[in-house]
Amino acid sequence: DRPLPSFKDAYKVWSESFGMYPLPLVKRVKLFWSSLKGWISENFPEALRTLSKGASEAQIRSAEDDLGFKLPMPTKLLYRFCNGQLPFSKNEDIRMAPLGIIGGYVFYNYNVNVHLSSLEQMVEETKEFNLHLEEQGLPIGPNLALVASSWYHPKTFLLNCSSGDLYVGTANLSAGEMMPCVPESLIKPTNSDMPQDGLLLWLEEHLRRLQNGMIKIRPLSTSRYICLYPEASPLCSSAVTNGVKVRASAVFVPEHPRRGHLGTHLYSYSIRLSVPEACMLGGVYFSSCQLHSRHWIIRCKDTVVSDMHGEGVIGEHPLLLPGQDEFVYESCTPLNGSSGSVEGSFTFVPGRLTQPEGKPFDVTVAPFPLEVPDYIF
User: Keyword Nucleotide-binding: yes or no (predicted)?
Assistant: First the structure.
């Protein structure tokens, strides 16, 4: 970090550090990390302290020796600039748990928050994973390295260091089942000018979503976290009825342990209810309105697979007041297919359920998609 006396000296140091990598790739990875750290510094500063300094070439070679295979060039460079997030165990500071730079989602008592692994954690968890497969009598995957994982409920991302493909473990990961989470057509790990593997593409796409507001920081108990429920169209729907605004979106949850029992795919959805200005019905303004019931229509492709009515939401009947923060809740639904949609309505009462000030009215929930995305986070 000390200043160097001349450009020649600076170039020599740079060449010794990064001269073995294509310059365009070095610039690309450097830009990624500087942009991500800039976003985190401005929007999620508490997570900055979890980012490690860059690893040395010696550390990378040591990790490769321990793994028994080479890491793809883009992944090596990613770790040269930042050695992932500080590793910690479940016996250590629980306050770090929500600070994964990939983020996650929460519904009912199910909580996922994904951290980018350090080299040390990558080696340790990869060895544990391979040992488990051996004990189960299952074949070990071709040069798979665990590059990211969740602290709360398990969710694991694995990089195929031969092909450059990135996978997410499913509910049957213990049996070796995984799904691709980056478009295979984009992966070019051996391109001489600009190699790109699944991990680099995945992280760059994640940064784009942070920068364009598709995903945002949301509160979690006494902390905050990067929330993966989409916040913008077309993945997030929005509708206003009689002054009541409903926003809705979903995430694919491939790793949930009940996925296979409920349906071939499981999705968690987030509903946000608010009255931005005022509740108005028949030209009359009301100071509040309260949710009474819900109606959901769930489709698999174009076929209605569920049409259900119920009281309240997650056991509550939220009271909405003009200008207050959104009432947010999450739930989940299975689907026997890779794509579908949800739409429906909420029935509200002007005033309060115990003191209605007018007739009940329905509030539209515009359709929002259930789909296995090209990029899975």
Answer: no
CATH of the domain at 365: 2.60.40.1470
Are 21 and 13 a contacting pair, CB within 8 Å?
no
Distance of CA 193 to the CA centre of its chain: 30
Whole-angstrom distance, CA of residue 13 vs CA of residue 32: 22
DSSP H stretches of helix in the chain: 7-18, 23-43, 57-67, 73-81, 119-135, 198-211, 259-262
Q: Which domain holds residue 138?
A: 7-211
Domain contains 218: no
Furthest CA-CA distance within the chain: 79
Whether residue 376 is contained in a domain is answered as no
Phi–psi pair at 340, nearest 5 degrees: -175, -160
* Dihedral pair phi/psi, residue 207, rounded to 5°: -60, -45
Q: Residue holding tokens 């080479």?
A: 70
Q: How far apart are CA 156 and CA 255, in angstroms?
A: 8
Digit-coded pLDDT (tens) for 128-160: 999 988 888 887 777 999 999 998 888 999 999
309 C-beta neighbours (distance < 10 Å), count:
11
State residue 18's pLDDT score: 86
CA angle 217, 203, 138 (to 5 degrees): 110
Helix 73-81 to helix 7-18 angle (10° resolution) is: 130
Q: What angle do CA 125, 128, 130 make, to 5 degrees?
A: 110
DSSP 310-347: EESBTTB-PEE-TTPPPEEEEEEEEESSSEEEEEEEEE
Residue with tokens 């297919």: 337
Block residue for tokens 């945002």: 216
> Are residue 164 and residue 288 in the same domain, yes or no?
no
Whether 166 contacts 156, CB under 8 Å: no
The token pair at 199 is: 């991990």
**Are 281 and 163 found together in one domain?**
no
* pLDDT attached to residue 153: 87
Rounded to the nearest 5°, which phi and psi values hold at 41?
-60, -40
Which is nearest to 100 in space by CA: 112, 90, 113, 110? 113
pLDDT for 12:
57
pLDDT (tens digit, 9 = 90+) per residue, 266-285? 999 999 999 999 999 999 99
365 strand-pairing partners: 344
Same structural domain for residues 176 and 29?
A: yes
User: 272 forms bridges with which residues in the sheet?
Assistant: 247, 328
Structure tokens at 131: 């040992």
